[in-house]
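In these records, each integer encodes one residue's backbone shape. Here is one protein:

___
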Amino acid sequence: MIILIVEDDKTIASGLEYSLQDADYQTIICHDVESASDVIATQLDHIDLCLFDLSLPDGTGYELCEAVKKQQDKPVIFLTALDNEVNVVMGLDMGADDYITKPFRIRELLSRIKSVLRRYNKQANTPPATTINIENISINTQEGKVYKQGQEVLLTALEYRLLLIFANHIGQVLTRNQLLERIWDVAGDFVNDNTLTVYIKRLREKLEDNPQSPTIIKTVRGLGYKVGG
């Protein structure tokens, strides 16, 4: 497993490099957006996960996340000293898979990395099956692809997993707690309820004709959400 680390604080970068290599990961270290952009452009095929500091001397981790997601759906975790909802939501909206606030324990970071990689591996190993249709949305679970009126809709691994949960419970009201339990593995994940709100919003923006008045992922007041039925 190769991890791209982009961190301008060289002391922190060295500590991350040592700890990740000690955990049997290979690492590529960059200290600014310019050098990281070159790596993303030329080596992304070989990178398994990206760790991006949000504040960099010549830009932000948001830019790098956008560059990664435009090329391939590779997992991205943000390292941030800015522990507030706006920055968290912005990062998730950019397609990031998780974030961790400095200062952090290396064991916590390793747990987050393993968890995100597990989710991606589960998506890659989706068993052969079938097509699930919800209104004008079609989910091909063999390919792990989603289509709206025949046009492919690009989803992140966690967005896809959330949609599959709904697709496998057509007509059933799912509470927020039920959704969180199914999205996140019990061990090793640090659940933030804001995350679910962000992913529901993002799915609606990608799937609904009118996200402000959703007809696919419907809110059931006081209970949760329901698809179909």
Notes: Helices lie at 10-22, 33-43, 61-71, 85-93, 106-124, 157-167, 176-183, 193-207. The two ends are 43 Å apart (CA to CA). Confidence is low (pLDDT under 50) at residues 185-189.
